[in-house]
Here is the input.
Amino acid sequence: LWRFALAPGPVQLDQSVIVGPGGLIEAAHRLREISMHCRARLTRFRYALLSAIRVTLFSLTLATCGDASFAAVPEPDESAVMPVGGSRVVFAAVISLVFVEFILLLRQHGRQQRLEQGLKAACMRLSLTTCTAQVGILELDSCNRALWANEQFWRLVNLAPTAALTLDLVITAVHPDDRHILREAVHSAAKSNALINSELRLARADCPPRWIAMTLLGHGGTRRTRGPVSCVAVEITQRKQMESELRVQRHLLAHLARVSILGELSAALAHELNQPLTSIMSNAEAAQCILSEASLDIGEVRDILDDIVRDDKRAGDVIGRMRALLTRSETQIQRIDVEQLVDDVLTLEHSDLIARNIQLRCRIPRNLPAVRGDRVELQQVLLNLVLNGCDAMSGNALEERVIELDATVTEDSREVRLSVLDRGGGIAPGQLEKVFEPFFTTKRGGLGVGLAICRSIITAHEGRIWATGGQERGASFHFTVPVFPEERHERAVSAGIHT
Amino acid sequence: LTTLSSYGRARAAPRSHVFSSVWLLTRGMMIARRQVIAVVDDDESVCKAVCRLLRSAGFASRGFVSGQEFLESWLNEPPDCVVLDLRMPGMSGIEVQRKLNQLWGWTATIFITAHDHPQARQECLNAGAVAYLLKPMNAHQLLGAVHQAIGRKTH
Here is the structure.
């Protein structure tokens, strides 16, 4: 019994040593298991109470079993047989059990003390960490009432500590335009048990607004029922300001790069404008000549006027595209038809390609989905890649000056990939990533910012850009742009994919 | 590729004084024989407009959108004058001029281009071009050059 009572791990009954009535041992075993199970949950008082009940139960069981039951149990080992006694045995057993319980209580008390100390230390560490890291913590129950919030959280949301903190009160501290984000995030976390990140502005009269990043984790919720939610909040105003400044700088740099590209293309653009002007001039003078004749051909004059209008529109389109590239405006995310995007770029590039004797092989599938992005910025990326390819082939023989432009939709239908392949000198394997770094250039007189800007534009579009070596020679540049959300859904529905 | 084919017809004297001098010059030539001008420009719109202008001035004109197409289509005697775009995809204007010279000896050619480059100008003139005109050229310049080319050929 001593060995049994003081066993540190789960109970392992050794029938060869402890020999006694089966019912007694089973009762003791069950009680001990109950005790082990409850030990972690019950308070010290309750544990003591349970121990007392155990002792009483044990004594009663022993008393009711009597000596007869001992004799009924088969003895596996004669040497280990305990002497059969009368009331003295019962008394000794009760005393032993009381002593065992006392020892267990002492052990439990010591363990609880150590646990409490550990808990206190953990609380202190958590408090120190949250204060140092300026992290606000909020615990919400399933009814959106706050179970607990640390001091930093109160400071972060600029609210006075109150006993009745609820989610609605926290929401009042959030910017009106972002309140739905927090509400939806808490709702999702409470039901999905997933980690949800959201960035919110706080309601503040003065500008610029303060930003906080919230990470929410639900636990115990199901699809039908809500569970409690833990929320960690960090102020990210400074990061947002820096991001904003970076965005402005990136725009400025991208604009400068566009101006530089258009400078390079000025001769080609002049040609693109002169073509329709030549048509207009010739048509107008032909019309003058026809009108001055005695026999007027009205049909011919009508055709001439139609052509003049068409050429004038064509010249206007060239100017419009140039102006769009030269204008410094905010990013405008919109639905973009890939074929139209490529067409716009090739219109600007058309004369330059002819001047450089470069053949262009363009493969754009008809059913390509539209993408989501800024038209001007994506034009800039494509234009830059095509121009780079042209520059790389300046030393090639005429028949080796070929640029291939491919567009495909990725396997998951989430992105469209555009690839520009040239037959130039190629890129060394070790420099495939380096070419996107600022001020890295292999071109004579190049600044080395073109591809770096391309990367920043594509990253801002949540896409990827990378370079690979050509199959035989030359280099390939690829970039992906997300498919316009509605088109993705339509494609998924038409393909029978449930999203 | 589109081939623009049309022949001019004898026209009444223009009332406008702007084209009167040009008209008088062309009219005199047309009495004897309608002059045939080939226009080669990769820009279909330009090709069509120049053909139309030449036709309105009383010439017979045919348009081609590439040098290759022109050389393949025009197998008989050379045209009286060829108006050639300098920069075209595939075969450039100068290459067409050289081919013409190989096929029929010297051919009266007029180069039209939107890229003014002294080297290109010299190269064209060395290849035997009568004129090198910058786009957008007006009717006076073009028809003047055409008359000059035809006159030189006749001479």
User: Anything to note?
Assistant: The radius of gyration of chain A is 40 Å. Residues 87-133 of chain A form the longest helix (47 residues).
